[in-house]
Specification:
The chain is of the alpha/beta class and 218 residues long. It is built from 5 helices and 8 strands, in the order αββαββαβαββαβ. The protein is 39% helix and 24% strand. The strands form 2 sheets. The chain has a 5-stranded mixed sheet with strand order 1-2-5-4-3. Strands 6-7-8 form a 3-stranded mixed sheet.
Length: 218
């Protein structure tokens, strides 16, 4: 192959990679107007990411990424709830526009180590009902977290609860499917919730090897 052909082939390859990085993941928006923003995207796969596996190291690294993510959101004037579990980031909250939602996702993608970004965004309440909506969400949040705390079925789980405009968002990890089912059932029993969003993963059995390219139980 001639030197010119080699350079041409390299240029094509680089163009393809750069184009891939520039492509923004498709986002599903509920309804014609912005009634919600719900998406799960893969963080930049072309950048090398550190991978730490095993017990406490995973937890420590998640906490570090979660802290960095929250700090970065605040620095960019994005007031959202952020959680990181097993290298997966979850953004929850209210946004003013689709552009702000996109900006939040791009900001989260800059945190090294994050593998995927799942977001659940809602528009702000009208000014006249913002206070009453917030008070209602607080009541529902307290009821749900109290029920979670009063049951022994959820011992050993890592569950986070968000309630926005009467929508309950459950984020976290359970030891088995029975615990996940219990958490969802408890949430469904809370009167006043419009729906329950399930972002709960289930730990892979200790004797099940997870090899590169495989997907753990969810």
């Amino acid at each position: 192959m001639s030197e010119f052909a080699s350079k041409a082939a390299l240029a094509v390859l680089l163009s393809a990679l750069l184009a891939g990085c520039a492509l923004y993941p498709a986002v599903q928006v509920a309804g014609g107007a912005m009634t919600g923003y719900d998406a799960m995207v893969t963080a930049d796969k072309y950048l090398p990411r550190n991978n730490v596996e095993g017990g406490c190291l995973d937890v420590v690294r998640d906490k570090q990424m979660e802290r960095r993510l929250r700090e970065r959101l605040i620095l960019n004037d994005l007031h959202l709830s952020a959680h990181v579990i097993e290298g997966k980031a979850y953004l929850v909250g209210r946004v003013k526009s689709r552009n702000q939602a996109d900006y939040a996702v791009r900001t989260a993608a800059t945190v090294e180590g994050i593998q995927t970004i799942t977001c659940k965004f809602y528009p702000f309440s009208p000014a006249k009902q913002a206070a009453s909506d917030a008070a209602r969400d607080e009541i529902l949040f307290n009821q749900l977290t109290k029920r979670f705390g009063n049951t022994k079925r959820l011992e050993g789980t890592d569950l986070r609860v968000e309630v926005i405009r009467t929508h309950a968002i459950l984020i976290g990890r359970t030891r088995d499917y029975s615990q996940k089912t219990a958490a969802l059932a408890i949430a469904e029993e809370v009167n006043g919730l419009a729906d329950v969003i399930d972002y709960i993963s289930v730990e892979a059995p200790k004797d099940t090897p997870v090899t590169p390219g495989s997907v753990a139980a969810k």
